[in-house]
């Protein structure tokens, strides 16, 4: 059975705005029920990150459901070891799915920013007030086959995210007449990656369209 790990925001990579324990549980349930993956939800604490990233078996899918923002305090020895283990795992090309706050996670791990293909930029990126959100498909990527839009009744719309030129936009939304990319994918020699800005809180996963999108992304990443 294929195995997935969900790194769930705790401590250094938690924040006051996101209920990571709740959203990580919803993600894990979807992956188990819809894709029959064996899923471990692992908190972002140093020993746990090392155990996952440097363990005897590489995960078939690494999901980051964490945040934390930019840190002014340098990592201690335990976190330096965890960051090194995460960097080494990413170098293997492990399929990576970053969800929502993941755009602002592991800001002190350059390899993570490179792998994800974009990030939240302090004082530039933003989101309008949470509420009904309409997202339009932005490409003919296989993840989007047969899909034209994703509607979520209660969601945040991340805007003005920085992204690399080589990623393929998956979803966009419009705010104040400006189109913003809300999800993207990339496949190259480094492996496959998806960033999906949806999934702010538990009610996001009450929307069938949101759940369908995440399952599509994970299916493509593990194919």
UniProtKB/TrEMBL annotation:
Give the domain of life. Bacteria
Q: Which InterPro entries match?
A: Class_I_gatase-like, ThuA-like
Q: Where is the ThuA-like domain?
A: 81-220
- The residue range of the signal peptide is none
Protein name, as recorded: ThuA domain-containing protein
């Amino acid at each position: 059975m294929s195995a997935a790990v969900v790194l769930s925001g705790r401590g250094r990579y938690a924040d006051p705005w996101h209920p990571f324990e709740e959203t990580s549980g919803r993600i894990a349930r979807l992956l188990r029920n819809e894709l029959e993956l064996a899923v471990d939800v692992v908190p972002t604490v140093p020993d746990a990150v090392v155990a996952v990233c440097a363990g005897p078996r590489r995960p078939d899918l690494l999901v980051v459901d964490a945040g934390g923002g930019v840190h002014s305090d340098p990592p201690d020895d335990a976190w330096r070891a965890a960051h090194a283990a995460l960097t080494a795992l990413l170098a293997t090309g492990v399929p990576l799915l970053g969800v929502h706050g993941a755009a602002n996670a592991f800001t002190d791990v350059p390899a993570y920013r490179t792998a994800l293909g974009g990030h939240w930029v302090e004082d530039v990126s933003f989101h309008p007030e949470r509420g009904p959100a309409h997202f339009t498909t932005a490409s003919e990527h296989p993840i989007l086959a047969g899909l034209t839009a994703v509607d979520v009744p209660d969601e945040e719309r991340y805007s003005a995210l920085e992204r690399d030129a080589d990623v393929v936009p998956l979803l966009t939304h419009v705010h104040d007449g400006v189109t913003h990319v809300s999800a993207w994918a990339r496949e190259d020699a480094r492996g496959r990656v998806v960033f999906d800005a949806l999934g702010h809180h538990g009610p996001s996963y009450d929307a069938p369209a949101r759940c369908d999108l995440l399952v599509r992304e994970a299916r493509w990443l593990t194919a």
